[in-house]
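This entry is listed as follows:

___
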Amino acid sequence: MRDGVYDAAVMMYHDQGQIAIKLLTFDKVVSVSAGLSVPITARAHGKAYEIAGKNKANVVPGANAVRMCLNMANHKNATDGIF
């Protein structure tokens, strides 16, 4: 992931790899819940309530999660269109 060799990392549990992945590429990280009947994605950094309504939030992680979810729903390459 760091050197562009891999597109994804698979973890048994949410917290196993989140810290390492967020340190490498915070704005591009999208969590995917696999094996469900519908695609579920989320930005990896949480909700950021402390900056809500202050015009400080970076919308890229949320936009990436939405794009990936739409791509998964359309059976496309899930990483297409990620910034």
